[in-house]
Specification:
The protein is mostly beta strands. Helices cover 0% and strands 50% of the residues. It contains no helices and eleven strands. It is globular.
């Protein structure tokens, strides 16, 4: 089982990024998926999760309206679209398969001018 994130980087406040998480080694389309993040000196926190078919999503209250989680089961990939980014969104973002208890390696997102 493997999860590989990509799409992180440096972006100015107000900008956008789309993170991707490519999954392999398990029946991706039958499992819910999640995105978490961990800022320096803080605990890892849930950003969003999505049901196996994509019909149900859940977001951290503070991120509703700015972040969107989606998935493409044909590509075994889950996405996180992040808009109107703020400096406080700076963190390492992790993909997580809850039912398999598997984490990706993380991708750094830095929001700074």
């Amino acid at each position: 089982v493997r999860l590989v994130e990509s799409g992180g980087g440096l972006v100015q406040p107000g900008g956008s990024l789309r993170l991707s998480c490519a999954a392999s080694g398990f029946a991706f389309s039958t499992y819910a998926m999640s995105w978490y993040r961990q800022a320096p000196g803080k605990e890892r926190e849930l950003v969003a999760d999505i049901s196996y078919a994509g019909g149900s999503t859940n977001y951290a209250d503070s991120l509703k309206g700015r972040f969107t989680i989606s998935r493409d089961n044909a590509r075994n990939t889950v996405y996180l679209q992040m808009n109107s980014l703020k400096p406080e969104d700076t963190a390492v973002y992790y993909c997580y398969a809850p039912s398999r208890r598997v984490w990706g390696q993380g991708t750094q997102v830095t929001v700074s001018s």
